[in-house]
Design goal:
Belongs to the GPC1 family. By secondary structure, this protein is an all-alpha fold. The protein is 68% helix and 1% strand. Strands 1-2 form a two-stranded antiparallel sheet. The longest helix is centred in the C-terminal third of the chain and has 38 residues.
Length: 394
Amino acid sequence: MSSEQSSTDSTADGVPAAESEEALDFRSSMIMTQDWNLDVDSDELDDSPATVTDARQTFQNLVRSAIKYDTFKKGEADTVRRIIEHIELVSLKKSAEGFNRVNFSVGVLNCFFICWVLGAYPEYIWLLYLIEAVYFIPRKFYNMWRAKPLNQAFYYLDFCWFTNFFAMAYFAIIVISGIFGFNDDIQNGIREVIFKAALGVFCGVLVCANLALPFVACLFHDVNTMTGLFIHLMPPVVMYTFVWYNDRIVEAWPNLFNLSYLEDGLTYYGGTDSIASCSTAFYFTWWVIYVCFMLGGGGIDLPKKFKPDGSPANPRYDTVFHSTMRDGVCILIGKFFRGRSKADSLTLMETNMFDKIDFCLYMVFHMIASLSAIFLSGYLCFKSIKRTRTLHRL
């Protein structure tokens, strides 16, 4: 199936692609709900009157009927009541995911515990980050592996995940080296470069991600959502403790950390050893790896529903690129850069048939946003730290 297929021929579950703006908006909404993982097996819902898949199909039919007969505007009570009944079925799925008092209470208490440790024992925040990551990240991966309709395991190749894996690996190496007395072999210059790269990325990209990304939210009962919040929020918090409480960290862990370069002074701009340069080098390391995977390793073809010859592809895996495009980015790229109609963009979103030009544009925008965060947000955080330290010395 060609990505340039005419919008008049394309359909989504029987809904014509270009009948009306309402129909197009409906198609867009239904594409986005596919990423909510509502298509679970019936055995995952105990004592449920129907599967969530049936509820989702019924919901689609009801909305199509509302669009066709304008029943929403007339306020047909029966239609609204039936929709609410089937929304209740979705709540059963949420219960199956862990929406109960115990999980909610544990999530709340964990947030309070992190805040308490940050205030009372900031020198232990990095260790708490490492310990909780050992639980959150594998648990999240388990859910991503079982996600439907597509396996989400390759989401772990995204930049934010890459950054957290790097931070965890670094702390793990520091701990293991300290236990076996190998820390002297890790040159202070290497530590300084890693710290500079982390400072720019954590205070730049991840801080801005917390502000900009809609899925970075606080839902105490939901492991998936809390893990997303964890990987975006905790690294900047860890960096905060290393900058403001470095003396307490060195005192508590003298065999693990040497932060003398903080006292010598750091520069954000200028030279290859500046914070901006180290952070940029770190970002482009990931950027090259991800582009190679997507274009050279076949990642861009993983979720496609059709092969180049037009036969069904039976996809199994999803990627962050395809998920982001389905969230509406494809429509924006198509409108402003590719000259596509909304119907054609929706067809691509329904089939994941994005081409290499779409991917290249996506990566250019990702690069611009990330480097802007490093050079602006990261610098503002660094400047605030430097100015406040100067005032403290006075």
